[in-house]
Design brief:
This protein has 8 helices and 11 strands. By secondary structure, the protein is α/β, with parallel strands linked by helices. It has a 6-stranded mixed sheet, covered by helices on one side. A 5-stranded mixed sheet has the order 3-2-1-10-11, with no helix packed on it. Helix 1 packs across helix 2 and helix 1 runs antiparallel to helix 8. The chain is globular.
Length: 360
């Protein structure tokens, strides 16, 4: 009886340690393998450390099993908190589709959604978070309800156009669905705000005395939004986490899968970005754009959720006044978690019921 009790105790302790490793420690081990990218010259420069993720797609009240919701949210929570604790970013950018069912929810359901988001992705007070709106948050252009847009703007502090200045780095965050190009109130207001930001940046670029409150100097801005800029498909994507074939060759539906060519040219001519970051596709892609005299790279940020891909990713971006560098980082694969738990459990049972028995 005493021997059985000891075996049972060893088994319980062993299973607890396996659970601790698979549900906590493994996130820190994997995420610690990524680091902030270095810049060429950081002397006398302020460096902004930005953690960028996209497409968390928190399940709502209508779709998905409760266990699937609980599991995926736990994984994202653990991964997010591990990134914050290990890498200590200055700022976090979430590039849309925070919610999977945001456009269908009533006000109470939406408020519960937002509270859950801030609980899962909680931050210390010294780290700021900025959010871009995605189509799953409020709907595609023709399905957006004014109330749905307003409540997302109010609760997530995400206006149509947001100009953020952090450590002399200019970041412009855009509502992609407001780039439809028609005369709707939302689109007209977004273009008006973009024009104001463009004028402000142009004046500041010509003379520091024109910079707002003289509190920052001009630097070529970074553009962030949910949709990719105009491209015909993902066929040009060669990243390891690009869409698989034949999905990669599927033609994009403009204004649904990517911005239109007209909207893209409008943004580029007014913002003149040095880099662009977006989400939406759930896959990785690096595209080199050339518009007139402006050449820049566009980064598609893969989904942060295991529901959307087996190898979720995020980006660590170091940004200074005149340069930036990007590291794409991976989270533990769900298959790795499962196989680790199974192998360690089998070894534990073998140890408790075989080796211990032989030793006795």
């Amino acid at each position: 009886m005493r021997r059985v009790t000891k075996k049972l105790l060893n088994l319980i302790v062993g299973l607890a340690l396996i659970g601790l490793y698979c549900e906590f420690i493994i996130y820190y081990i994997v995420i610690a393998q990524c680091s902030w990218p270095t810049l060429t010259n950081t002397r006398n420069k302020e460096v902004l450390k930005a953690f960028i993720l996209a497409d968390t797609h928190l399940l709502g009240p209508f779709r998905g099993h409760w266990l699937d919701k609980l599991r995926r949210e736990w994984q994202m929570h653990q991964a997010f908190q591990a990134v914050i604790k290990i890498h200590k970013p200055d700022v976090v950018f979430v590039l849309g589709d925070l919610f999977d069912e945001g456009e269908w929810t009533n006000d109470q359901q939406f408020n519960d959604y937002v509270d859950r988001f801030y609980s899962l992705f909680a931050l210390p007070k010294d780290i700021k978070m900025y959010v871009a709106v995605g189509n799953h948050d409020i709907g595609f252009h023709n399905r957006i309800r004014r109330k749905a847009l307003q409540r997302f703007t109010d609760r997530l502090k995400s206006p149509l156009v947001q100009h953020v200045v952090l450590k002399n780095t200019h970041i412009i965050i855009i509502n992609s669905m407001a780039m439809e190009g028609d005369s709707c109130n939302m689109c007209a207001e977004a273009r008006r705000q973009i024009s104001l930001v463009s004028d402000k940046l142009m004046k500041c670029s010509k003379n520091v005395e024109n910079c707002e409150n003289h509190s920052y100097n001009y630097s070529q801005p970074i553009l962030m939004q949910h949709f990719p800029l105009y491209r015909k498909s993902d066929a040009i994507c060669t990243e390891p986490d690009a869409p698989p074939l034949p999905e990669r060759n599927k033609l994009f539906r403009l204004k649904i899968d990517a911005l239109s060519k007209e909207a893209t040219e409008y943004l580029i001519s007014n913002i003149q970005p040095r880099a662009v970051f977006g989400g939406h596709t759930h896959h990785g892609c690096l595209v080199k754009h050339s518009y007139k005299n402006n050449e820049f790279l566009e980064y598609s940020v893969p989904s942060f959720s295991w529901r959307n891909r087996p190898d979720p990713k995020f980006m660590l971006v170091s940004i200074s006044h005149d340069e930036y560098s990007v590291n794409k980082c991976g989270l533990p694969k769900e298959a790795t978690l499962i196989s680790s738990a199974v192998i360690m459990s089998l070894l534990l049972f073998f140890y408790v019921f075989t080796i211990r028995k032989i030793g006795a």
